[in-house]
């Protein structure tokens, strides 16, 4: 297993970083890549539950602007929280 795959696995194991931020508790997560599809860096990832990732109230369902407006969180703020959770 590559370092990148191990990192993405560790990120997913954190559970949804947005659910954590909203005090919803631990929820299973999948990996959301930050940035353009062509720039997919395996280290620029955050854990989001299926709803907050692909659901109607999630990043891909709402779109970036509405997601940030709704949750008052950006991908970068969630990345910072992810890094903190990994190393804290």
Topology, please?
Elements: H1 3-13, H2 17-21, E1 30-33, E2 45-48, H3 50-54, H4 59-62, H5 64-71, H6 75-87
Antiparallel strand pairs: 1-2
What does it look like?
There is one protein chain. The chain has about 90 residues and is mainly α. The protein has six helices and two strands. A two-stranded antiparallel ribbon has the order 1-2. It is globular, with a radius of gyration of 12 Å. The model has no long low-confidence stretch (mean pLDDT about 95).
How many helix segments? Answer: 6
The end-to-end distance, rounded to whole angstroms, is 24 Å
Q: What's the shape?
A: globular
Q: Give the uncertain stretches in residue-range form.
A: none
Give the radius of gyration.
12 Å
Task: Look at the structure and give the mean pLDDT.
Answer: 94
Fraction of residues in β-strands? 5-15%
Query: H/E series, N to C?
Result: HHEEHHHH
The major sheet is characterized as: 2 strands, antiparallel
What portion of residues is helical? 40-55%
User: Got a strand count?
Assistant: 2
Cross-sheet strand order for the largest sheet: 1-2
Structural class: mainly alpha
Quick take:
The protein is mostly helical. Helix content is 52%, strand content 9%.
Descriptive keywords:
88 residues, mainly alpha
